Amino acid sequence: MALLIIPMTCFGSTLATSQPCQTPDDFVAATSPGHIMIGGLFAIHEKMLSSEDYPRRPEIQKCVGFEISIFLQALAMIHSIEMINNSPLLSGVTLGYEIYDTCTEATVAMAATLRFLSKLSCSRETMEFKCDHSSYMPRVKAVIGAGYSEITMAVSRMLNLQLMPQVSYESTAEILSDKIRFPSFLRTVPSDFYQTKAMAHLIQKSGWNWIGIIATDDDYGRLALNTFAVQITANNVCIAFKEVLPAFLSDNTIEIRINETLEKIIAEAQLLDVLKNVTFTEEGNSFHFDAHGDMNTGYDIVLWKEINGHMTITKMAQYDLKNDVFIITDQETKNEFRNLKQIQSKCSKECSPGQMKKTTRSQHICCYECVNCPENHYSNQTDMDHCLLCNNETHWAPVRSTRCFEKEVEYLNWNDSLAILLLALSLLGILFVLAIGIIFTRNLNTPVVKSSGGLLVCYVILLCHFLNFASTGFFIGEPQDFTCKTRQTLFGVSFTLCISCILMKSLKILLAFSFDPKLQNFLKCLYKPILIIFTCTGIQVVICTIWLIFAAPAVEENISLPRVIILECEEGSVLAFGTMLGYIAILAFICFIFAFKGRKLPEHYNEAKFITFGMLIYFIAWITFIPVYATTFGKYLPAVEIIVILISNYGILCCTFFPKCYVILCKQETNTKSAFLKMIYSYSSHAASRLAISHVSLDSTNSSITMTDPSSGGRSAAWQEGKDLQAQAFAHICRENATCVSKILPRKRISSI
After folding, report:
1. What is the β-pairing status of strands 279-282 and 285-288?
2. Tell me, what DSSP letter sits at residue 369?
3. How many CB atoms are located within 10 Å of the residue 691 CB?
C-alpha cells in the first residue's frame, strides 16, 4: 500500500521543512485536551487584513473585524462540551475541542482542516495519505462548522477523504445536500432549496410578480440565486433586477441552535452513522437529519417594519418545510400577513377572467397587456397566458367570455311564423283540391268534365296535388330519418304522376284537333294513356328507390355556424337529388311542347294554353330555386323548397282546374252539349276554311303559268275540298264526344277529349 507523508506547513516568518508546525496564538481561538477531540470552525473575525500587493510568501495574514455574535457561538460550543463532560453521559470519556478562527476566509479554514486531519499520537503533526483510510486515526473525530457555505464546501471536500463527520450550524447551500459529493456533511439548518421555496411561496401568496434580488458573490449567494430564480419563474414571477454584492458584507443575524447530537456518541468508529440517526426533541418538536443530511427545521417569517423612525422586527409566521405551508399563530399576525397583498409589486395590472395576457416588447413576461378573448374562446381565471378554445361542435362563447355556452339546436319549428304561414298555404291548397273534387263529382256528365279526361283522370291529378301539398309537412319540425327519406320521395313520385297525367291529356288534345294525316297517325301510335302514365311514373320510382338504397337522406348536425347547431336533412347524394328533379323537368318540358302546339283550340274547352301557363310557372319556380337553394344557409333552407313546391303546385292546379270550375259555376250556359257542339262546329268550319284557302293558294301558285283566268269551276273545286275536310273534322269530334252522331248508332258514354 502506497504511503505518502506530507508535513504540515509552518505558518511562521520562515519556511521549515524539518521542524514541526507551531500554531500561532492568533490562529487558534480555543483548545482543550480530551479523549475525543472535536474541531470547531468559526468566523470570529470578519475578514483578513489585505495587502496591497499579491502575496509573496505562504503565510496567514492578520484578521480584523471582531464579530461578537460569532464569538458567542464559539462559546456556546465550549459550554455544550463542558456540560457533556460534567454529566454522567460519557462516563470515563472526556471530550476535547480545538476551535479555529476562519477569519471568513477559505484558505485559513483549509489550514485548520489539515491540522484536524493530522495523525493521532504522532510526534510530528503530519497527515498520511493512503489508499484506504479505514484504519487511519486522525487527531479530531468530528468538526463543527463552518458558517459560510463557501468555506464549508472547501472544508468538506478535505474531510471526505476520511469521512470525518462535519456538522454545520449555518451553511444552507443546496449543493451540500448532494451526498455523492459531500457524503460526511450534516447540518442543523434547512437547505436553501426550502428557504427559496418558502420565499417563492410567500411572494406568490402576496400576489407579487415584479421583484428584485440581492445576493452575495460567493457559492452560497450564487447557488441560492439560481435556485430562487428557477422557482419564482415557475410561478410566473419576473425579476426586475439582480444585484450581486461582495461576499461577507451582510449582517448575519441568524439565530444558531447548538446541536446536542454529540451527547449521543457511543463509539468513536460509528460517529458518522450515529449522527445521521440522531433524533431529539425541543419544545415539543422532533428534529432529525434526513437522507441528505439536512435538519428538518423550518423558517421564521419576520416582518421588518419602520414605526416612528425605528425599525421593528415582528415574527409573522413559521414555514413548515414538509407540508409547504405557513403556520400563523394569532389573528394579529394573520392580518399582517393579509396586508402583504395590499403592497403592489406588479409590472402590469392583472387580467380579469375573459381576458388573456399579451406580452409586450419588454423582455419580462410580467409586463403585458390585457386583451379580450376572441369569439369561441374563454378564460376563467385571472392572468391567464392564453384563452381556452370551446368545443366548436357543441359549445360557443362570445367575446370576453368566462365560460362556454352550449349551442342551441335549431330547425324549422312548427311554432315558427314562416312555418305557420307555409302550413296555412298548404292547408288552403288541400281545401282547394277537395272543393274541386266535389265540384267535378257533382258535374260528372257535363262537357267540361268530360273534356278534362273524365272523372278518373281528374281524381288521379287531384290526388297528386293533395300529396304534393301534404309532402310540405315533412319539411317542418325536428328532422328524423323517416321524414328525411319520405319528403323528397313523396314529392318526386306524386309530382311525376301529376305531370304524366297532364302529358297524356296534352297528347290527347293534340291528337283530337290535328288535321295532318301523318302527324295524326304518329300520335295515334304514341297515344297509350295507361302505358304512358305507368312508364313515366315507374322511371321516377326506380330513381327514388336507387337513391334510398345507396345514398339515403339522413339527419345531420350542421356545426359550421358559431352559436347554433342546425339540425337538417342531408340529401345523401346531390346527384340523385338532381336526377329526380331533372327527370320531372324533362317530363314538364315535353308536356309544355305538346300543350304549346294545341294552344289555339276552342276557348272554353281549351286546356292546352292553361297547361302551357302552368308549365311556365313550374319552370320559373324551379329555375329560381336552384341558385336560392345553393346560397341559402340555416334552418330556413327547407322553407325554400316548400315555397317552390307550393308555387309550382298552385300554378298547375290553378291553370288546370280553376278555368273549368269557372265555366261550371259561372257560365253554365256554355257547359251544355248543344253549346259544346256549336263551338266545335264553328272551330272546325274555321279550321277547314283556313286549310282550303291554303290549298287554293298552293294550287294557284302551281298553275299560274298555264292558267291566265281562274274559272268558277276551280273555285268550286277548292270550296268542295274545304267542305270535305270540314266534314271530316266535325265527324271526328262528334265521334270523340259520342253526342252528335245519328240516332241509328248505338249510344255510349265516352270520355271525349
Report:
1. antiparallel
2. E
3. 17
